[in-house]
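Protocol step 4 of 5: obtain the predicted structure for the target chain.
Materials: sequence only (see below). No template structures provided, no constraints applied. The aim of this step is simply to have a reference model before the mutagenesis design in step 5. Sequence pasted as it appears in the construct record:
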Amino acid sequence: MPHTNELYDITIIGGGPVGLFAAFYAGMRKAKTKIIDSLPQLGGQLATLYPEKFIYDAPGYPAIKAADLVANLEEQLASFNHDILLEEEVINLTKKEDYLVLETNKGTHYSKAVIFAIGNGSFQPRRLTLDGAEQFEDKNIHYFVKDMQDFADKKVVIAGGGDSAIDWALMLEQVAAEVSIIHRRPEFRGHEHSVEKLKESTVQVLTPFMIEQLHVVNEAFEGVQIKHTKEEERQLIQADSLIVNYGFTSSLSHLKDWGLEVSRHSIIVDSDMSTNIPGVYAIGDISVYKGKVKLIATGFGEAPTAVNNALHFVQPDIRTQPMHSTSLFEKAAPQQVL
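Step 4 output (structure tokens):
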């Protein structure tokens, strides 16, 4: 049995919108809660891939940008002092007699109950395969944008042709000295409105080109050499930073290895959001049941159900149907935020 200080009531795997709301509600129920996410920032795919896209299925908002929705959820979550672990991927789940063991790429965690809120799965970026790229990762070559101000007054090159690449190009145009975007096809894959805004912007559009090699001088990153995909034309693009948006890979095969019942890349749950493993629950896009509608709004509704039933599992005398949420929040005094 792990030490009491190491044992959490609820551990939420996934820090996307649904996971964030689940953590907030767990705070309302005064549960000792931890969030583990494989990405370097909270918000999941919305924050990482589509920060400028509008969300239309969040209750109370006719339309809200993905980044703003995530910011609101983080502000809401700040009422409680939960532990949040980023850039940590769960690699194994083991059920003990009265607790669960989560092994990650960085350590071991113990929890009385676990809630999966991993969307379409734990995903990792497709990395640049050019010689020497690895040594510049997180210095000059980036796969995520944690803070736009890191690129203030810099020359930035973005590689990619989807919504994520276009979003970041348009956002960084406001803070960077120069922004260029490289795509190997003549046309972009992003939404028409975003592509139109890109063409009207000051962003230098380079199509159809691909990065041929890094431009390194005296072991310092100086930019990239690009090559036309159909001709022999080459260009040297000076840059301080390269942001790579080649998409992401995601694997859910390990869920079966852990003993979870899976159907079509989703975890099968009952109406109380429980899985076939006692103490383990799943919400949001990763969960499936008869009549499931995959919307953010659906995940928000599933979160309190999972939390309430997880706490009832942990302590059977705890009610699964607490008082009204407004009264509950009044009684849950916010903890000090560090």
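Step 4 remarks: The CA atoms of residues 16 and 44 lie 4 Å apart. The chain has two domains: 4-123+249-331, 127-246.
Proceed to step 5.
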